[in-house]
Amino acid sequence: MKKKKIIIPLVIAGSTLVLSFIGYLTILFLGHYVIDEKKLVFHASSKIIDQNGKELTSMYSENRDPVSLKEVPDKVAKAFVAVEDKRFYEHHGIDAQSISRAIYRDILAGGKVEGGSTITQQLAKNIFLTNDKTFLRKTKEVIIAINLERDYSKDKLLEMYLNQLYFGHGVYGIQAAANYYFSKDVKDLTVSEGATLAAMPKAPSTYSPVLHPDKNKQRRDTILNLMNEQGYLSSTETVEAKGRTLGIHLKKKSETPWVDSYVDLIIKEAESQYSISHEQLLQGGYTITVPIDMNLQKVAYEAMKNNRYFPGKSGSPESSAVFIDNVSGGVKAAIGGREYQARGYNRVTALRQPGSVFKPIAVYGPALQEKKFRPYSLLEDKEKSYDGYSPKNYDGQYEGQVTMVDALMKSKNTAAVWTLSQLGIDTSKSYLEKMGIDISDKGLAIALGGLEKGVSPLQIAGAFHTFANEGVYKKPFFIQKITNDEGETVEKNRNKQERVFSVQNAWNMTRMLQQVVKGGTAQSGSYAGDLAGKTGTTTYSGVKGATKDAWFAGYTPSTTGAIWMGYDKTDNSHYLTGGSQYPVQLFKDILTTAQITNETFEKPEGIKELQSPIHLEGLSGFEARYVFKIKGLFTLELSWDEQEDKRVEYRIYEKRNGSETLIDSVTGTNSYTMPFANVFSDAEYKVVPYNTQTKEEGEGSSYVKPETFGR
C-alpha cells in the first residue's frame, strides 16, 4: 500500500512533467511556424502607385524612423514599461498575475475593463496577427509572445515595440512621434515628454495632445506617478515632471496633403475588405495599386480651399468630394475635408441627409424599372397629407399634374412623394440596397432624402454611377491590387457588380438628369460637355432660409462624382447661407480645371432615344362636311389646322343621341375621311389633340354637325 501511495504521485508528477515538456516543445514548434521574421524588419515600408506604375507616396515612410533602444533615453523607455507592462523584465512573454487580475476585475465589472496583454503580446498582435477577435487569434498571440521572448532579448523586444507603436495623426514609432509632436529627436526627449507619448498608444485619438490636451496631461501625470511607484523616478523628479506643460511643437504639415484623405481610405479598405491591418501596411513592404487620378485629386483639393464656393454664417463650412471612373468603378479622387489631416474625420464616408439628390435613386429610377411610370407620365403635384406627413414644394408652386421629366428638373417634392406612394417604400429600399445603400427608414420622407442616419458622398456617387454604367452597380473601390515585397499578388479588387436598371431606363435617366443641368436646378456655373446630375438641399429649421446640407451628384461620360458641403454641426451660428448652386459650381469648376470636358454621351446600341416633350396647342380651323364620291358615295370629311409638333395625335370623337364615342385617331395629318357616311344621321364630330407621352388630351374643337354636300 505504501508503495502505491508513493508510485501514484510520482506517476502524476512524471506525467505532468512529460506533458508540460511536450506542450513547451509544441509552443516552440508552432511559434517558429507562425512567426515570419520579415515582419520584424520595420524599414520595409509600403508604397502606393497609380495604374501606370507611377509612385504617388510611400505609406508614411516619413513618419516611421526606426531607432535603436540605445537612442531612447532610459526614463522615456521606462514610461512605456510602467504603464503597459510593469512586470516586463520578470515574465517570459505572458504575465499570469496580470491576466488573473484582469479576469478578476472583468468579472467584478460584468464586462471587459482591463487588459492582461504584455508588451510582448502586444508586439505579437500588432505585427503578426489580423484584427479577428477569436480564441484562435489569442492562442497564436500567446504562442508568438513566448517564442519572441525565447529568441530576443528584453531590450530588443522593447526596441521593436517602441518602433511599431501608433501615436495618432499618421505617426508611427517613437522617433517619428518625437519629431512630430516636439520637433526633436527621441534622444532629446525629457521624461515628461516621454510620458506624454506613452499616454497615447492606448487610444491615440482620445489621448492626442493636439485634440485632447487635458486628457493627455491627466494620463501623462498618471504614468509619472506609476514610474515613481515602480522606482523609475524619485518623488522630486515626479513633481518636477508633472509641473511641466505638454510643450507640444508640431512639425510642418505633409508635403503632399492632397493625398492624405485618399490614403486613409486605402488603409480603411485594406483592413475592412482584406484583413490587412494598418500596422501590416506600414511594415509589410506592400505595393498598392490604386485607381487615383492624381491631377483630379490635386485639383479638387485646391478647389476646396477657395472660400467663394462656401457661403457660411460663421467659421468655415466643411465639404467633401468623391469622383469615380465610370468604366471600372475605381475612385479617381476623394477629398475628406477642406483642411483634412491624416487619420482625421473623413467626410467622404460620413453620413449626411441627402435631400433631393436622393430622388433619382430612391424614386424615379425604380419607378421606371418597375414599369409603373414612363419619363412623360403625369405625376400628381398637389399639397396632400399622407397620415400626417405633408410635403411641400420648396418654391410653393403646384401645377396639379407634372411629367416625371419636369418633376425631376424642377425638383418637385410633392410629385416625388406621390410617386413613392404609388411605387411602394419596400420596393424603393430594395433598389437602394442593390446600390449599396441600406436604410432602416420606413416613411415616405425617403423620397426627399429624409433619413434617420443619412448616406455618405461615397454611397451617393456609387449609386449615381449605376446610371452612368448602363444600369449596372459596381461598388466603388480604392485598391486595385496589393503585391508583396516579392512581387506576388496577395489581394486584388473583388468588385461587387449587379444589374439594377435596364440599359434603356439608365439611358432615360441620363437624359432626364441632363435636363436638370440644362434647364433645372443645376444650371449654376458653366461646363463644356455633357453632364447629368441632381441637386439636393436640406434646411435648418432654427433659422429662416438657412441651409444645413447642400449637394450635387452628377456624371459625365467618363466620370461620376458627388459633392457635399455644410457644417459638421449645424446650429444658430453655423449654417449655410446658400444652397445647392454652390456645389454645382464647384463640381463643374473641378472638372473643367482637371480638363475632364467636351465629352458626349453616346446612346448604347439598340436603345431608343428619349424624345423631347410633345407640345400641344389648342385645336383651330376645324371643319366638317359630307361630300359625294364615286367610290365612297357619301363621305365624311374632317379637317383642321395642323399643329407645329408633328408627333401630336388627333382623336376623332362622334356624338349620337347624346352619347360620345372615340371612333379613330390619326397622326401626321390634318384631315380625316370616313366613306359611306349616313348623311341623314344627327351625328356631330369633334377633334382633340392628344399627347402620347403624357396620355393627356389638349384643348379640342367643339362638336360640329357636318355640312351637307359641302365642297
UniProtKB/TrEMBL annotation:
GO molecular function, one term: peptidoglycan glycosyltransferase activity
GO terms under biological process: cell wall organization; peptidoglycan biosynthetic process; proteolysis; regulation of cell shape
Listed InterPro entries: Beta-lactam/transpept-like, Glyco_trans_51, Glycosyltr_51/Transpeptidase, Lysozyme-like_dom_sf, PBP_transglycosylase, PCN-bd_Tpept
Keywords of the record: Carboxypeptidase, Cell membrane, Cell shape, Cell wall biogenesis/degradation, Glycosyltransferase, Hydrolase, Membrane, Multifunctional enzyme, Peptidoglycan synthesis, Protease, Transferase, Transmembrane, Transmembrane helix
Regions crossing the membrane: 7-35
Domain Penicillin-binding protein transpeptidase: 320-591
GO cellular component, one term: outer membrane-bounded periplasmic space
Record-annotated Glycosyl transferase family domain positions: 53-227
Catalytic activity: Preferential cleavage: (Ac)2-L-Lys-D-Ala-|-D-Ala. Also transpeptidation of peptidyl-alanyl moieties that are N-acyl substituents of D-alanine; [GlcNAc-(1->4)-Mur2Ac(oyl-L-Ala-gamma-D-Glu-L-Lys-D-Ala-D-Ala)](n)-di-trans,octa-cis-undecaprenyl diphosphate + beta-D-GlcNAc-(1->4)-Mur2Ac(oyl-L-Ala-gamma-D-Glu-L-Lys-D-Ala-D-Ala)-di-trans,octa-cis-undecaprenyl diphosphate = [GlcNAc-(1->4)-Mur2Ac(oyl-L-Ala-gamma-D-Glu-L-Lys-D-Ala-D-Ala)](n+1)-di-trans,octa-cis-undecaprenyl diphosphate + di-trans,octa-cis-undecaprenyl diphosphate + H(+)
Superkingdom classification of source: Bacteria
Family: In the C-terminal section; belongs to the transpeptidase family. In the N-terminal section; belongs to the glycosyltransferase 51 family.
PANTHER family the record matches: BINDING PROTEIN TRANSPEPTIDASE, PUTATIVE-RELATED (PTHR32282), PENICILLIN-BINDING PROTEIN 2A (PTHR32282:SF32)
Name of the protein in its database record: Penicillin-binding protein
Native source organism of the sequence: Bacillus xiamenensis
